[in-house]
Design goal:
The structure is a single chain. By secondary structure, the chain is mainly α. 61% of the residues lie in helices and 0% in strands.
Length: 186
């Protein structure tokens, strides 16, 4: 298996239980944004045939993140990109984040939508200490803005929990995509 660009989901997938540590981390290291430690930690715990099912792999990865403690979780949240803004100013996004945000057409914001995203991004980051995180797959810009507006009013502890839940949703979406890719090339 060839090495993969960090954080991409475009390499041909093999069953997780058949991969070496380097290949597993290379393929699954980007499932949690810029957090290869999740794939590394999971591999260290052992990968079995049960992990060849994306739902099982997602659950184990989520449990590892949940057990990592609030400091590491906050670090994980802070590694996520802001919505819309970084697509416009050209800051580096992982291929997965770029694709997901473009799929929600966040790269096609009107000037008014873009300005509102920027205002909300700044307010949210100052209030919560991490960027607004939402699994954008299947959502419109209007859906995302409405959720952003509503969640910006949440208590800090509730929003931390919601952000972690959204990170797990994103990971599951990415793992399912890898499984579909694996099945298509099998």
């Amino acid at each position: 298996m060839q090495p993969f660009e960090r954080g991409t989901m475009s390499a041909p997938a093999s069953a997780p239980s058949t991969l070496s540590e380097a290949d597993f981390v290379g393929l699954y290291g980007g499932v949690y944004e810029h957090s290869r430690w999740v794939a590394e930690g999971l591999y260290a715990q052992g990968i079995t045939k049960a992990d060849d099912v994306s739902a099982a792999l997602a659950l184990r990865m989520a449990k590892l993140v949940e057990a990592s403690g609030p400091e590491r979780q906050l670090e994980l949240l802070r590694l996520h990109p802001e919505l819309a803004g970084k697509l416009k100013v050209g800051e580096e996004l992982t291929a997965s984040s770029r694709s997901e945000q473009a799929g929600a057409r966040l790269d096609q914001c009107s000037p008014e939508e873009f300005a509102r995203f920027q205002e909300l991004n700044e307010f949210y980051r100052i209030r919560f200490g991490f960027p607004f995180i939402i699994a954008v797959t299947g959502l419109s810009r209007a859906d995302i803005l409405a959720a952003f507006e509503a969640r910006a009013k949440n208590p800090i502890a509730a929003e931390f929990r919601t952000a972690l839940d959204e990170v797990h949703k994103i990971a599951r979406i990415r793992l399912d995509a890898l499984a579909r890719q694996r099945d298509a090339t099998a």
